[in-house]
């Protein structure tokens, strides 16, 4: 059976505020107010998932852990938690929020043995974010090169990684449309579900991503388009419901 594309509205937190960045670059943020209010807005609009990111923890410019944990705990919907989860303590704290899964990024590039261990321990509560420029992975809030996408993917597949969140950094926060080629190429080399992230600008972009569900795309993260009111979440859910 082919499934409907899941939608994950994003709440990215920096300095205590919900923000969106362009290309994930520090300093490019537009602020959208209280993260909890944003998360509650998406929940009320019918979201089944929330993609919640602690950007300060990702960049190493502090953290919003307490606030992000409070948002995660107060949601009745599934939460994917991301940003700066790199060791036992940060993973335990993230999982203790009751989130459905966490998204590891930098750790998958810098401490692969630890990531293999936590994949073995936590199964599908662990996803790995593959954030790329071209086919080069980026870590530390997308500021440092971290190896080849396909080599890393093969390694993580062999370690049993349950799911990948794939972001084309060149598209992220730009409203320029998703990188469908990248998504197809990743789906062609792994049988694990893929969550698409970055660049969604329109309902047609979501419909285009939805055509890749049979190839292995499971969900799409939507950030800026919702905050910029390019469409409503209700319209987005309707667009992918067929
Ligand atoms: O997810 C991270 O850990 C992260 C780290 C550093 C910079 C950005 C990061 N995430 C950004 C997102 O997850 C966006 O919310 C998502 O890609 C949505 O993008 P868009 O729809 O283009 O606004």
UniProtKB/TrEMBL annotation:
GO molecular function: 1-(5-phosphoribosyl)-5-[(5-phosphoribosylamino)methylideneamino]imidazole-4-carboxamide isomerase activity; phosphoribosylanthranilate isomerase activity
Residues annotated as catalytic: 12, 131
Gene Ontology biological-process annotations: L-histidine biosynthetic process; L-tryptophan biosynthetic process
Subcellular location: Cytoplasm
Keywords of the record: Amino-acid biosynthesis, Aromatic amino acid biosynthesis, Cytoplasm, Histidine biosynthesis, Isomerase, Tryptophan biosynthesis
EC number of this enzyme: 5.3.1.16, 5.3.1.24
Superkingdom to which the source organism belongs: Bacteria
UniProt cross-references to NCBIfam families, sorted A to Z: hisA-trpF
Function noted in UniProt: Involved in both the histidine and tryptophan biosynthetic pathways.
PANTHER family named among the record's database cross-references: 1-(5-PHOSPHORIBOSYL)-5-[(5-PHOSPHORIBOSYLAMINO)METHYLIDENEAMINO] IMIDAZOLE-4-CARBOXAMIDE ISOMERASE (PTHR43090)
HAMAP family: HisA
Name of the protein: Phosphoribosyl isomerase A
UniProt source species: Streptomyces luteoverticillatus (Streptoverticillium luteoverticillatus)
Gene: priA
């Amino acid at each position: 059976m082919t499934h409907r594309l899941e939608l994950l509205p994003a709440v990215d937190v920096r300095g205590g505020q919900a923000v969106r960045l362009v290309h994930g670059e520090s300093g490019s943020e537009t602020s959208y107010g209280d993260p909890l209010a944003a998360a509650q807005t998406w929940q009320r609009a019918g979201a089944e998932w929330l993609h919640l990111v602690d950007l300060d923890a990702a960049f190493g410019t502090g953290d919003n852990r307490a606030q992000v944990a409070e948002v995660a705990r107060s949601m009745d919907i599934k939460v994917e938690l991301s940003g700066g989860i790199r060791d036992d303590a940060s993973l335990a704290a993230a999982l203790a929020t009751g989130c459905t899964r966490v998204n590891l990024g930098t750790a998958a590039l810098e401490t692969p043995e630890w990531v293999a261990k936590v994949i073995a321990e936590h199964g599908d509560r662990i996803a790995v974010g593959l954030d790329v420029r071209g086919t080069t992975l980026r870590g530390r809030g997308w500021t440092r090169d971290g190896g080849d996408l396909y080599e890393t993917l093969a390694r993580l597949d062999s370690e049993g990684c349950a799911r990948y969140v794939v972001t084309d950094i060149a598209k992220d926060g730009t409203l320029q449309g998703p990188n469908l080629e990248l998504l197809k190429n990743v789906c062609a080399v792994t049988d694990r579900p893929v969550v698409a992230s970055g660049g969604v600008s329109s309902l047609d972009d979501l419909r285009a991503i939805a055509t890749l569900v049979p190839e292995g795309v499971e969900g799409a993260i939507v950030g800026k388009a919702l905050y910029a009111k390019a469409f409503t979440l209700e319209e987005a859910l309707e667009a992918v419901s067929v």
